[in-house]
């Protein structure tokens, strides 16, 4: 169970991906085989994909797999690398705080606006922004704590990239 929660965003995104594949299969089947497409499949597929992207962003923070170029930073002394990593994470937390605040406000503002086909409030689409921003904030704080432990242990800065740039 602990492993599930350590990879919560990835697991939830995988469930949504299964739902997306099923929805797309239904869309193709009803359109080309039955010649009578379901009206809701395109809208569901679009917004489930949005959920997958936001959950993937949160998972990428935990795995340190966001795109980044650390060529210049790696050329600096170790103390400067740690300082830059700390400042970057503080900037990330600032952006996430804004996503939480403005995402929540946007979600609440959309309570009266229904989706065109499903006729549910747009709030369900916008809600993923503040929810995943909270998850990303937690993941960023965990990454900062891991970095602090590595720094006090005398280790090098953990690379945020897998590409080696």
Can you describe this structure in just a few lines?
By secondary structure, this protein is an all-alpha fold. It is 72% helix and 0% strand.
How far apart are the termini?
36 Å
The poorly predicted ranges are none
Q: Which shape, going by the Cα principal axes?
A: elongated
Radius of gyration: 20 Å
Structural class: mainly alpha
Fraction of residues in H or I helices: over 70%
Number of domains: 1
Overall pLDDT level? 88
Largest sheet: none
Strand coverage percent: under 5%
Sequence of secondary-structure elements: HHHHHHH
Number of strands: 0
Structure annotation, total helices: 7
Structure, explained:
- The structure is a single chain.
- By secondary structure, this protein is mostly helical.
- The protein is 72% helix and 0% strand.
- Helix 2 runs antiparallel to helix 3 and helix 3 packs parallel to helix 7.
- The longest helix is centred in the middle third of the chain and has 32 residues.
- It is elongated, with a radius of gyration of 20 Å.
What are the main properties of this structure?
single chain, 165 residues, mainly alpha, 7 helices, 72% helix
SSE diagram, text form:
Layout (H helix, E strand, L loop, with lengths): L1 H5 L1 H26 L7 H23 L7 H4 L3 H32 L13 H4 L1 H25 L13
Helix pairs in contact: 2-3, 3-7, 5-7
């Amino acid at each position: 169970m602990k492993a599930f929660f350590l990879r919560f965003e990835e697991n939830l995104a995988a469930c949504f991906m299964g739902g997306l594949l099923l929805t797309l299969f239904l869309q193709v089947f009803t359109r080309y085989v039955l010649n009578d497409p379901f009206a809701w499949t395109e809208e569901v597929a679009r917004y489930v994909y949005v959920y997958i992207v936001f959950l993937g962003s949160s998972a990428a923070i935990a795995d340190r797999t966001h795109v980044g170029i650390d060529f210049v930073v790696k050329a600096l002394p170790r103390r400067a690398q740690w300082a830059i990593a700390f400042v970057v994470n503080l900037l990330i937390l600032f952006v996430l705080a804004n996503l939480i605040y403005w995402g929540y406000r946007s979600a609440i503002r959309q309570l009266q606006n229904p989706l065109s086909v499903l006729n549910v409030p747009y709030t369900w689409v916008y809600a993923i922004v503040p929810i995943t921003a909270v998850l990303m904030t937690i993941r960023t704080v965990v990454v900062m704590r891991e970095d602090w432990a590595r720094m006090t242990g005398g280790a090098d800065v953990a690379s945020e990239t897998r590409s080696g740039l």
